[in-house]
Design goal:
Layout lengths: L1 H12 L5 E2 L2 E6 L5 E4 L7 E5 L3 E2 L7 H30 L2 H23 L6 H18 L2
Antiparallel strand pairs: 1-5, 2-3, 2-4
Helix pairs in contact: 1-2, 3-4
């Protein structure tokens, strides 16, 4: 998502980028073929005017530069938060994963009993169990 925002900003700001001429040489080879290269020709050849090539962010106005830097900073912060969350998630032991799996299984069982039907005195107990399992999963399990 953050890459998408940076890309959108880039595409919006493309028309206002500054330009700089590039050096290209048109060279005629010994066999008569023509090639284009960045270095001057060793044999016969001439420099070709290519028009203008765009340089990255030289032409941005100060407000646009600030906006771009703000987006970049926000993207870096989001990436750092994601990395930190992954690091914390990796730090959990496999017992935590097994406990979460068991709680999800028990929640599925309770939901199945609620759908299937129950005796009059069991409804409140089953709903309380369901709420407790859901609260546990929200709080401790990813």
């Amino acid at each position: 998502m953050s890459t998408g925002i940076s890309l959108r900003v880039f595409l919006l700001l493309c028309p206002c980028l500054s330009v700089q001429a590039a050096q290209v040489y048109r060279c005629q080879q010994a066999d008569g073929s023509i090639s284009y290269q960045q270095q001057a020709c060793s044999g016969t050849g001439e420099q070709v005017e290519t028009g203008d090539a765009q340089t990255a962010w030289a032409g941005l106005r100060p407000g646009e530069k600030a906006l771009y830097e703000n987006y970049r900073r926000r993207d870096r912060e989001r990436l750092a938060r994601r990395k930190a969350a992954r690091k914390v998630a990796r730090g959990k032991s496999s017992a935590d994963v097994r406990v979460c799996f068991a709680k999800r299984q028990k929640l599925d069982d309770v939901n199945a009993r609620l759908r299937r039907g129950y005796k009059a005195g069991q409804g409140e107990k089953l709903r309380r169990q369901r709420d407790n399992y859901e609260a546990y999963l929200r709080r401790f399990c990813p």
